Amino acid sequence: xxxxxxxxxxxxxxxxxxxxxxxxxxxxxxxxxxxxxxxxxxxxxxxxxxxxxxxxxxxxxxxxxxxxxxxxxxxxxxxxxxxxxxxxxxxxxxxxxxxxxxxxxxxxxxxxxxxxxxxxxxxxxxxxxxxxxxxxxxxxxxxxxxxxxxxxxxxxxxxxxxxxxxxxxxxxxxxxxxxxxxxxxxxxxxxxxxxxxxxxxxxxxxxxxxxxxxxxxxxxxxxxxxxxxxxxxxxxxxxxxxxxxxxxxxxxxxxxxxxxxxxxxxxxxxxxxxxxxxxxxxxxxxxxxxxxxxxxxxxxxxxxxxxxxxxxxxxxxxxxxxxxxxxxxxxxxxxxxxxxxxxxxxxxxxxxxxxxxxxxxxxxxxxxxxxxxxxxxxxxxxxxxxxxxxxxxxxxxx
Length: 398
Hints:
By secondary structure, the protein is mainly alpha-helical. 84% of the residues lie in helices and 0% in strands. The termini are far apart. The radius of gyration is 21 Å and the shape is globular. Helix 14 packs antiparallel against helix 15. The chain has 2 domains: 3-196, Growth Hormone, Chain: A; 205-389, Growth Hormone, Chain: A, CATH 1.20.1250.20.
C-alpha cells in the first residue's frame, strides 16, 4: 500500500471520527439535565462554548499549520478533542462540564481546517466529497453509540468515554504518520504547483488573504451555504409539524431523510464531479438547491416534502467541492489560511442563521422559516456566480 493510499484511508477514518461527537449532545442531554438538575436552556452554554472554540480555531488554523505542519496539528487537535470528551465523561459538576466544550470546539475546528486544507491540495474532488460523506457516517454513528450506552445501563459517561477513546486512537495514528502529511510527492507537488509556504510567510499570507476579494467571496459563500443547510435542518421539523400539519413520526422521518440525502448526495454526485466538471456541478447544485427550497417553502403537500430531499441532494456536493476548488481559486500560498477562514465562516453561518430564524419566528411567525431559506438560497447562488466571474483571472489577483 502506498503512502498516499494510507493517508487517504486515514483521512476517511478521521472524517468519521470528526463526526462522532457532533450529534451526541442531543441524545445525552436528558440524562445531563437530570444529573446536574438543569433547565432546558442550559444546552445553549455547551453549544455556544463549542461554537466559539470552533470558530476561533478556524481563524488560527492556517498559522498553526505553518508552525507545526498538517500532521502535527492533526495529532494535537485530535488529542485535544479526546481530552475534552474525557472531561465530559468525568465532570462531576455542571460548572466543570460546559467549559470543556471549548476544548472540543478548538480541536474539532482545527481538525476540520487541517484535513480540508490537505484534501483540497492532494485529493481529487471525488474523494473530497466522499470524505465529507464519511463525516455523515460519523454523525450517524455517534448518536447510536450514545443511545446504546444510555439504553443498556452505563449511561452518557460511558458513551463519551467510548468516543473519546476513538479520538485518542486517531491522535496516535496522526502522531505516527506526522511526517508523511507534510512530505510532498511529485504528484502532490504538481497539484499544489509549489511547495507549502514556510513559517516566516504566515503573517504576509494572512494579510494577502484578507486583502483578496475572492477570499471574501468564498467566505460569504460558505456562510450562506452553512446558514441554509443548518437553518433548514434545525427548523424543518417545526415547519412540517406546525405549519404543514404532519404528525411527529412523519416529520421526524422527513427530517432524517433530509440529512440522509446530504450523505447520499456526496457519495453519488461526488463520483461524477470530475467528469461533469466541478464548476458546472456547483452551478447546477446551486440552482437545484434554490428549486428545492422554493418547493419546500411554498408547496404544502408532498411536492414540498420532496423539495426537502431535492434541497439535501443539491446541497450535498457544494461544501466539499467548493473546498476542493479553493487552492485553484486563491493559489496554494493562501490556501491554508483561506481554508481556515472558510471553516470559521461556515461555523458562523450554521450558528447565527438558525438563531436568527428563531428570532424572526417570534416576531413574524412560522413563515419566516421558508422566507429565510429562500433568501439564503438566492444569496448563495448570487455569490457563487460572482466567484465564477473571477474564475478565469489569475489565482492571486483580487
